[in-house]
Amino acid sequence: MTMPATPRAALVYNPIKVDAAALTASVQRLSAEAGWHAPLLFATTVDDLGDAATREALERGVDAVLVAGGDGTVRAVAGAMSGSGVALTIVPSGTGNLLARNLRLPLGDPETMIAATFSGERHAIDIGFAALRRPGGDVDEHAFVVMGGIGLDAAMIANTSPQLKRSVGWVAYVGGAARSLVGAHPFQVVYQVQGHRMHSARVHSVLFANCGSLPAGLELIPEASVADGLLDVAVFQPKGPFGWLFVWRRVAWDNSVLRRFRAGRSVLALRTEDTAVRYARGPALDLAPAGPQPVQLDGDEFGEAVHVHTRVEPGALLVAVPVGHTLTPTGRPTLWAGAARRR
Question: Which residues is 318 bridged to in the sheet?
Answer without folding.
Answer: 87, 124
